[in-house]
Amino acid sequence: MEKKEYFTTRWALLLAALGMAIGTGNIWRFPRIAALNGGAAFLIPWVIFLFLWSIPLLITELTIGKSMRMGPVGAFGKLIGKKYTWMGGFVGFCTMAIMFYYSVVMGWCVKYFIASIGGGLTNGQEYWDYFTSTQFQPVLFHFISITIGALIIYRGVVKGIERANRILIPSLFVLILIGVIRALTLPGAIEGLNFFFNPQWNRLFDHKVWLNALTQSAWSTGAGWGLLLTYGVYLKKREDIVLNSVITGLGNNSASLLIGLMIFPAVFALAPNPEVLIVEKGPANTGLAFIWIPNLFAEFPGGSIFTAIFFLALSFAALSSLLAMIEMVTRILMDMGVNRKRAIVIVWITAFVLGIPSAISLKFFGNQDWAWGVGLMVSGFFFALAVVIYGAKNFRKKLINQIGNDINVGKWYEYLIKYIVPLEFIVLIIWWFWQAIGWSKEPDTAPWWHPFGAGSLGTCLFQWAIVIVLLIILNKTINNRIFRSEN
Amino acid sequence: MEITAIIMMIIILGAIWGGLAFSLTLAIKKEKLKELNSK
């Protein structure tokens, strides 16, 4: 029997939770989406949805993890009955599928960091084309990334996750702050701040701005991924749930704003056509980070140091999130009776092998990012559904508002989780599918129903259906493994 | 910097960073209280 581990202090949990939430999406997606959607006009719904989607789901996850003491698969079965274990299975699978290509993304960041130290990163486009055309290099750096992550998780919760995040998160904030100071002191930086904070009020009446804000909030905070649930398993009995969840959500958004204060002034100070450049999607939606940032930063004295700082920050953000994903899959295997060391070896090998297609094909990468990124919204909905099945009132009174909480939640939580979160899910999923049908009409794009199209509606439904059907078929077997092991 | 941008910057940063500072202060106070109670 393995010794149960717990986060030693509240601050250790908070650093790990912030590490989980702050990822590469805060750095390269947030500025682009904010710029595309009217600057400060986007920030208003983005703040609103932090409280209407992310924080209620973060509270839900931490509560389930702490109360059930199992990863998402077992926790769903234990909370609402064994016939629903497959729902937790979907949450776990979705995040695991993201882990496969997220390690590839971290590999890109590490490679770019090394290249920027060596001074070989002056033309982003040329470097990207060279790097991705080799195929061997993305696979090698994916291997390095997943190995670093697996080695840290191998050391356990306290010696691994806790120690790593104690270094990664404060360092990440220091790196970002250095970047913010440098960017704000560039001539012309104020124009970037004007662009970021000047609201285009008419955009507030555009439904796309609200839907993009909700999507960004859902993806960026890690709410509904099953990751905070996993960290909740290692919470001490009298540890707070609500305030820690609120700090995680606010901390994640604070980091996004800091990154905005770095990217907007830098791009407006250095680029000849900043408004066009900042919304550039580029390959795998990473144009700003991997193509333009190296070009821009190469233009001023000491720019290579700034580039290195940027990619080191990206690597740290990626690693701290990757750790949470590896731990979640490891936890699921441990719940099935596999010991930590064996589980981590299985996760390490599987993640490396199944990440290779994303490392060698950007088309495959894009397909997975689309299918499982949107799948996370289904995961978030499953959490809300689980609370409804359990009984929102009981969940709030018995499981959330426990002794040890610094603050308790009121009835508002029940309304949010029962009505608002499901409504947000329905509107979002319809909108994303509607967009996918629209994209399919563009030239050289697969039809909307195509099961293997890069960003088609069909590929989402096809992949989700396979996973859900398999999980329902295997539901009894999974239950036997988990609950026999628990007994 | 334009006046509207300055006002919006204060509102947005105030809401998020202010909220975070308030939550962290509350958490520090509660931790100190727990420490005192356990002695």
Can you tag this structure with a few keywords?
heterodimer, A: 487 residues, mainly alpha, 21 helices, B: 39 residues, 1 helix, 0% strand, rod-shaped
What gap, in angstroms, lies between the N and C termini of chain A? 12 Å
Backbone shape of chain A: globular
Secondary structure: number of strands of chain A: 0
User: Biggest β-sheet of chain A, characterized?
Assistant: none
Written description of the protein model:
Chain A is mostly helical. Chain A is 77% helix and 0% strand. In chain A, helix 2 packs across helix 12, helix 5 runs antiparallel to helix 15 and helix 16 crosses helix 17. The two termini of chain A are 12 Å apart. The mean pLDDT of chain A is 90. The model of chain B has no long low-confidence stretch (mean pLDDT 91). At the A-B interface, helix 3, helix 9 and helix 12 of A face helix 1 of B.
Strand-helix topology:
The complex is a heterodimer of chains A (487) and B (39).
Chain A: H1 10-21, H2 24-36, H3 40-68, H4 72-80, H5 85-117, H6 124-134, H7 136-154, H8 156-184, H9 189-197, H10 207-220, H11 227-232, H12 242-270, H13 274-277, H14 287-297, H15 303-335, H16 340-360, H17 362-390, H18 392-400, H19 412-439, H20 457-473, H21 475-486
Helix pairs in contact in A: 1-8, 1-12, 1-15, 2-10, 2-12, 3-10, 3-12, 3-19, 4-5, 5-7, 5-15, 5-16, 5-17, 5-20, 6-14, 7-8, 7-15, 7-16, 8-12, 8-15, 9-12, 14-15, 15-16, 16-17, 17-19, 17-20, 20-21
Chain B: H1 3-38
Structure summarized in a few sentences:
The complex is a heterodimer of chains A (487) and B (39). Chain A has 21 helices and no strands.
